[in-house]
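Readers of this paper often ask what the protein records in our data store actually look like. Nothing more is needed to write down the fold, since each code stands for a local backbone conformation. Below, we set out a record of this kind in full and without editing:
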Amino acid sequence: MQGWTAPPQKPPADVSVGSLSQQPTIVTPADLRKMLFKHKWVILIAILIGIAIGIYHIETTVPQYEAVSRINIDLGRSANIGVENVIQQNNEYFDPDEILQTQAQIMRSATVAKEAIDMLNLYQKRPFSELFRGHPYSGQLTPAQRAAVVGIFQSSTKIAPVPGTGLLDVSFQSPDPEVAMNAANAIVDAYMARDLQSRYQGTMRISNWLAQQLNGLKQQVEANQKSLSEYVQSHNLVPTDTEGGNLVTDDLTTVNQQLAEAKADRIVKEARYKMAQTRNPELLISVAPGTVLASLRQQQADLMVQAAQLKSKFGPQYPKLLEINRQLASVQADVDTEINSLTNRFAEEYHTAVQTETLMQSRLDDLKQAAYRENASAAQFDILKHDAEASSDLYDALELKLKEAGITAGLSSTSVDVIDRATLPLSPVLPKKRSDLMFGFIGGLMGGIVVAFVLESMDDTVRTSEEAEGIAQLPTLAVVPHLALKREATGAQRAGESSLMPELVSYLDPQSRGAEGYRTLRSAILLSAADRKPNVLLITSSFAEEGKSTTAANLGMSFAQRQERVLLVDTDLRRGTTHLKFGLSSRAGLSSLLAGESGKEAYVRPFADLPTFTVLPRGPIPPNPGEMLASHAMEEMVSQWRKDYDRVILDSSPILAVSDSLGLATLADGVLILVRSGVTRRKALLRTRELLRRAGAHISGIVINDVDLRLENYYYAKRYGYNYGAGYGESDSKK
């Protein structure tokens, strides 16, 4: 972050370095953008390599022509041999897609491939001819050669079902378009020939099997018929109808019918006999209307009428009446005689009927016993008869189908129809230039991203303010962008300015983005300790060449531009470079002051237009820089600087390289840890922070140096930095 930050907070004492370095992080889209931008050249190179590989593949690939033949496999067409009632090929239990896939695999089989190769004699054509360079083809193939030839053919063959149909596309690729066309058609022809041959052979196998079965079945039919005949003769079973039967069964039926008739006759005659016993002439006349009794009853009735008439007219003693009475007595006697005669006759008929019924019942009982005895024989008869009839029917059916099979074997049709035969392809299908280039681009892009992720996982350097804050748990005071160095000043060329180093942008190019970054650092320092003015600031880092001297010089000039009395001290008595940046001599400086060899002449004001800015170079390199910086004289000198200057900036040596700066850190009001983006490692930053804390230094925060602002998440800061920097430059140049 730039601008004001909160005062530095120390983490709890029980928090270890390792725990801070292993805090979980959340990868955001901004992090991915930064990572991709960071490794943009790797990704770009990977894309170029992928495109180059695609171009190489296009240039080195032999053009391949593809011919396609389309066929229809009719799964509903009957494929049996005419014995539908004996052998049924039921396809309803199979998935049509599975059947199509099965037929496709058959077309890709080694058998079909070998037949197609032989059909076209492809041994002399590319790429098959390359297998016979050392040993020319002589008509015979070794197992290895056969496998190689078939493998090449199969690798060029593609069988693809047309979705939603029963169609198959048979395609073949070859450098020769004519070979591609002929091979695609040859595959179809070889498959159809194999299909027809397999059907014919299957028909003949079943026909031969039926013939063998018929021979055994014929013998079985003859044996069953003979057993049935012998059983009928031995058990006196004489068939009388289509259902079969014997004499006992027929007699039992006849006698049972006669017994029923005898019972009916006996009942009728018994009724007449009982009616005769009543001696009622009228009832007898009703059951025997044709007898004399009827005429006698008529005569008696007439005489009784005459007698009644005469009696009523002439009285009972009338002679003719007496004669009629004698006639009535005679007729009555005749009636009684006739009634007795009918009664006797009916009695005889009744007794005869009873005797007949008894005889028929006795005969029926005898026949029932005989039928019971014949029952077991009849059941066995039925079994033998059923076996004989079943064997005979099966023999007749198989004999008929055997005759049909002989004809069907020659007429069996294939279930494959050729819809479109392959034609000569006009243009190659391989290489696919656009696809290859696209795949090369995508492959290179993906490979570059993978490499970028790998490099990112291996890179443990700190690059952004967020990373620094997350690792060190310290606030970032400022982000200083990468300096676009230039030696031209914004105003007129001043004398002696040519000796300045170009990285002194706060003076040479005050409207640049770099100078703005140092001014931001200046403001952050002032705002972070508003209640306690940080007079003495120590700038340090983990290792050398991370920009301490440049940052100290530009920060000092930024404070001086506010009319503050600033002293820039180079405390790196081993390899300090502050004097080089300002074009000064190192014959007098801090080391000579501490040694008492020089005085105020060691203090130099390099700029006439910045009279409040003073530089104290390191001086000659002493033999014991650590002891000199930790001396009491150094403490007194820092105390004096606090009184004489508003701001004292100490450019120190790296913490992890030497321990010279640890003593100075305790004398400073605030310590700035400098992190160079892409150079400072995470563990080094953590180690630097811990050493300073153990020494009791007051760490103000972190300064991120040499940052590519495009890696920072605050995109608008980068954008506005460009615009404002350009605007200020243009404005000043016009003035």
In short: The longest strand covers residues 65-73.
